[in-house]
Amino acid sequence: MGLGKTLTTIALLWTLLRQGVNGRPTCRRVLIAVPASLVSNWRAELRKWLGDERLGAVAVLPGGGGAGAVAAWRAGGAKPVLVASYEAIRSLAIGPGAVDVLVCDEAHRLKAVQSATQDSLKALRAPRCLLLTGTPLQNNLSELWATLDFAVPGMLGSLPAFQRVFAGPIAAAADARAAPAEKELGATRAAELAARVSAAVLRRTADVLRAGLPPLTVVDVFCRLTPAQVQTHRSLIARGALATLGTGATATTVLPLIGRMKALCVAPALVSGEAADGSTAPPARPPLPDAADLIASSGKLTVLAAMLATAAAAGHKTVVASTRTSALDAVAHACAHLSLSVARIDGRTPPAARLDVVNSFNGPAGAPVLLLSIRAGGAGLNLVGACRIVLLDLDWNPAHNAQALARVWREGQTRPCFAYRLHAAGSLDEKLFQRVLFKQGLADALGGGGGGANKKGNGPAFSRDELRSLFDLDERTECSTRDLVLKGEKGTGSAALAASWAARAAAGTDACLDAAEATGAVTWARAVRGGLADDEGEADAEPAAEEEKEAAATEAADDVGSLELE
Length: 566
Hints:
- This protein is an alpha/beta fold.
- It folds into two domains: 5-132, Rossmann fold; 207-562, Rossmann fold.
- It has helices at residues 5-18, 39-49, 66-74, 86-91, 116-122, 141-151, 159-174, 180-198, 207-210, 227-238, 251-266, 291-296, 299-313, 325-337, 351-362, 398-405, 428-446, 464-469, 480-487, 495-502, 511-518, 548-562, and strands spanning 30-34, 57-59, 81-85, 101-104, 128-131, 216-223, 318-322, 342-345, 369-373, 388-391, 417-424, 522-529.
- Helix 6 (141-151) packs antiparallel against helix 7 (159-174), helix 7 (159-174) packs across helix 8 and helix 13 (299-313) crosses helix 21 (511-518).
């Protein structure tokens, strides 16, 4: 997340290859395992800092050529570093004993206790292992165990013992309904676990950025639903959409309804053509309406259009990020109406082409707006050509959101930055934001980024009544999150947190926010200056073609876990 992990690793590898810790080289061959979308980025960084003449590196790029790259690397000498994707490593004939140092970037990819990726890397039997991640904990403590057990086998004991001694008590204490004794035991076990973990973890926080970067202001903007959005919400409910929450409800049947409601909070046109009976079949996507009508039908798009026009007039570039490609399509349609050209990176952008898109956007002649899939932009992208980023909607995983926000505020940025998170006031959209905030609590206790966990490891469980309440629409509130925080409800009773929500962002805080306020579509705005929270870490990039199958299964499991029904 711009904290210097790549450069620090390159410096470490150079030291180990040249002089080691005792004045002699410690290793001869290094393997850097990365997501497919970052192979080119790592090769470029190695060349940037050391050059091929000092540290030769070979890369296995998507599309073949792996055998030749491995042969050149095995020869040692001038090319001691091999960069390859996790998926490519499974098929490369490397064999045990060939790797002296194994580096795993975005190492939370190893979070599954049993996976083909872990098995292929363990088979290498590398004597030294370095894991790089901004989020050792994303969804549950079993992921933390799996990652650390890969690096330091046996450090946290067996998985059953770990779950009994640490994961169970800590997860129980994270539940807002926990008894005092459960909270006390959970706090004790969390402190003990944090102490154990610290022996194997070198942690850096956003503090290292604040001294050397321009200021960052994070703004939560709560947008009023338009009459069209309210009417569409009522129509979905009236057509029996909540029937999926009956006695036979499962996470799988509920997720499609949540998806439609999230789409509605961006624009009602994104719901058109979707079934209301919980069907998981892909709906036909109708053409988008006239751009002016599209913008007027959505509180978020009304706010976004005002922000983009104001930023472009001032010569500032903006990144717009979303979890939905259909939402990015809608923003592209609105930008055409505003005469703003766009660049785009989503799951359909080939890994080899992403760096070209980034370089073009960061250049002086680049488009004023970049449309970014939150997961596609989850790792390795440096978008310092922009000084503003807007999250149109949020991912379940807070690490994905924070990773997207950090694409702009990082090394190389020279201008003050603004990061905006847009929420539909009083709706499911805002309630999911509250859940994302809750998921960060467990990571805070352990000193790392990521999410919280329930008894089964995936965040506090929803009862069916609580799940139904997600779909209640409060048309009177300016900001239900502020109301909850100021009342100290749902575990939010922190004086510092309450103070940050007590006052509305003042006029003059930012020209783009002022323009949004002038539309009348903003019900509340909260601005916090000083940078991203330390607990906001990194997350997986959206899968490229060869990564898609395994990553999709993992994300599906995460979503289902997030909707555990009691």
